[in-house]
Write a structure and sequence with these properties.
Layout lengths: L5 H4 L8 E2 L12 E8 L2 E13 L3 E8 L2 E13 L2 E12 L2 H39 L25 E3 L8
Antiparallel strand pairs: 1-2, 2-3, 3-4, 4-5, 5-6, 6-7
């Protein structure tokens, strides 16, 4: 998660997500990241700022420029037996919420469902590489990452969502 370019690997291809910020990038509080997505064929610039940076614990990005009236995304990491639980909590308010709320909620849910599966794929592949390296005598950290993602939603004024197992409504 410290390498922002991994985000391209876990974002659905239908968004045509590209990071526009130049490398190298020092992830820390105050870092700004520029992206571009295509939503229904329309190119949309997106800039986020890292508001909180606690490596290995959590980080928070907030949209500065982009498709939402409000977007705040907290990424948390919790140690669990055999690995790490990855928890995403997203608060958002769509532009023209009275009109777009339903479509945006569906899109955000699809994006995070894809992201969950892509993250599981990436972590399983990394765990397989570690097992192969251990077989060759290389020293790597022990334990297989086993993310657990729960899905739910939460209101923030007009709309909100969290990737956190079973759908939850309200709050």
């Amino acid at each position: 998660f410290a390498d922002a370019w991994n985000l391209e690997r876990i974002t659905p291809p239908w968004l045509n997500f590209r990071i526009r910020t130049r490398r190298p990038l020092d992830m820390r509080e105050g870092t700004r990241l520029d992206y571009r997505i295509r939503l229904r064929g329309v190119p949309i610039p997106w800039r986020t700022r890292i508001d909180v940076w606690e490596p290995g614990v959590r980080f928070v990005d907030r949209q500065v420029i982009g498709p939402y009236h409000w977007w705040r995304h907290e990424h948390r990491f919790e140690a669990v037996a055999g690995g790490t639980r990855v928890i995403d909590h997203v608060e958002y308010l769509p532009r023209v919420a009275w009109l777009s709320r339903q479509w945006v909620r569906r899109d955000v849910e699809r994006i995070f469902a894809y992201r969950r599966e892509a993250l599981l794929r990436e972590l399983r592949a990394a765990a397989g590489e570690r097992r192969e390296d251990r077989g060759r005598g290389a020293r790597r950290s022990t334990g297989r990452p086993t993310p657990s993602c729960r899905r739910g939603s939460r209101a923030r004024r007009a709309a909100g969502a969290a990737l956190a197992g079973a759908p939850q409504r309200g709050s």
